[in-house]
């Protein structure tokens, strides 16, 4: 029993530290006397109808996350069920909330292969989906913020620095993923460089085994990427649904605003601010973009919420972050028992 407890602690220690870190950041925001007083006041005056809208927005985001992934899975593997896609999507959200540098995507690939999908195909699907999500968020946020540029320039401190950080980090990611997907010579050169390094440190057998195994999977990856890349209707539907998903996610900040019985700020302005904050904070190298998400929300929304800004951050993070951990943990546990315990054949491309 004691050994099982130690094994459980080893596996879950990082997750526990991550959650405590995130709670600590929120506690820091709420640690002032004014913050605690405003929180108590806000809790007694929240509007139940808008809390239901928040819940509906969160649920819609989860379903769309699974469905967009399902479009690509079904494109390569006709037998793949929506239940599996929803499970994998929640795995991504769950581990992105618990690990630094948003490591949810490698965990999605790992679980897809455990359910029988070829690693090349699963990597291709996650790479394409991730590229679409980041690209849509990037360009959508820039378009929205351009309409409100003068407003945010005059009201958000360090707006130029935040913009430059968001532009550079997202551009680098989009370019690298695109090159990796489309340039077989580049990925093969990177693979050879790793193999040469293993040779230099006297791991010749490991080098040869590594190259042969990964090279075969990379060929499958590029083949799958080409198959997906030829389907423009698939891309169009995925982009449109991702646009809807991002819009719904951004509307949650407006629902939070209305739940405090506040009025006067347009939906468009709040969606623009939320999308931009999400785009910039996505590359903060802490679990769930902790610190960056709260800080960005504070900078962009404090004028909207006034004295209620700290309770608003709390409710917003509960809705967009902590629920991913709570519900994601349940789905990860359930899906592992239901899907990973069953045998299924690899995809034949």
Automatic annotation (TrEMBL):
Q: Which gene encodes it?
A: mprF
EC supergroup of this enzyme: transferase
- What's its membrane topology? Multi-pass membrane protein
Family to which the UniProt record says this protein belongs: Belongs to the LPG synthase family.
Using the UniProt record, give the first listed, main subcellular location: membrane
Q: What are the record keywords, sorted?
A: Antibiotic resistance, Cell membrane, Lipid metabolism, Membrane, Transferase, Transmembrane, Transmembrane helix
Top-level division of the source organism's lineage = Bacteria
What role does this protein play? Answer: Catalyzes the transfer of a lysyl group from L-lysyl-tRNA(Lys) to membrane-bound phosphatidylglycerol (PG), which produces lysylphosphatidylglycerol (LPG), a major component of the bacterial membrane with a positive net charge. LPG synthesis contributes to bacterial virulence as it is involved in the resistance mechanism against cationic antimicrobial peptides (CAMP) produces by the host's immune system (defensins, cathelicidins) and by the competing microorganisms.
Which protein are we looking at?
Phosphatidylglycerol lysyltransferase
Q: What chemistry does it catalyse, as a reaction equation?
A: L-lysyl-tRNA(Lys) + a 1,2-diacyl-sn-glycero-3-phospho-(1'-sn-glycerol) = a 1,2-diacyl-sn-glycero-3-phospho-1'-(3'-O-L-lysyl)-sn-glycerol + tRNA(Lys)
State the compartments where it is located: Cell membrane
Q: Which residues cross the membrane?
A: 12-30, 50-73, 85-103, 123-147, 159-181, 235-257, 264-284, 304-335
Quote the EC number. 2.3.2.3
């Amino acid at each position: 029993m004691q050994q099982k407890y130690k094994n459980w602690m080893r596996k879950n220690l990082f997750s526990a530290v991550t959650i405590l870190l995130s709670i600590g950041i929120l506690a820091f925001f709420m640690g002032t006397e004014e913050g605690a007083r405003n929180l108590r006041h806000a809790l007694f005056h929240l509007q139940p109808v808008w809390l239901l809208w928040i819940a509906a927005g969160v649920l819609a985001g989860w379903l769309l996350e699974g469905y967009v992934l399902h479009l690509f899975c079904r494109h390569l593997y006709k037998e793949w069920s929506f239940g599996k896609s929803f499970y994998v999507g929640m795995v991504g959200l769950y581990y992105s909330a618990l690990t630094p540098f948003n490591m949810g995507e490698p965990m999605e690939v790992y679980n897809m292969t455990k359910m029988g999908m070829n690693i090349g195909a699963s990597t291709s699907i996650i790479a394409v989906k991730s590229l679409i999500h980041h690209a849509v968020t990037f360009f959508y946020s820039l378009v929205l913020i351009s309409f409100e540029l003068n407003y945010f320039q005059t009201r958000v401190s360090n707006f130029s620095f935040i913009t430059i950080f968001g532009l550079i980090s997202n551009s680098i990611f989009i370019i690298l993923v695109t090159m990796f997907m489309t340039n077989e010579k580049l990925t093969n050169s990177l693979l050879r460089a790793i193999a040469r390094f293993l040779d230099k440190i006297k791991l010749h057998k490991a080098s040869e085994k590594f190259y042969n195994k990964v090279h075969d999977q990379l060929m499958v990856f590029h083949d799958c990427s080409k198959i997906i890349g030829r389907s423009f209707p698939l891309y169009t539907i995925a982009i449109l649904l991702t646009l809807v998903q991002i819009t719904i996610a951004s509307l949650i900040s407006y629902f939070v605003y209305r739940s405090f019985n506040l009025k006067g700020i347009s939906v468009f302005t709040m969606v623009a601010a939320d999308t931009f904050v999400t785009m910039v904070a996505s590359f903060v190298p802490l679990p769930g973009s902790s610190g960056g998400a709260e800080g960005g929300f504070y900078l962009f929304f404090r004028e909207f919420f006034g004295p209620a800004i700290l309770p608003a951050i709390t409710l917003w993070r509960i809705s967009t972050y902590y629920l991913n951990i709570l519900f994601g943990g349940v789905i990860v546990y359930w899906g592992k028992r239901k899907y990973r315990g069953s045998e299924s054949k690899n995809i034949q491309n």
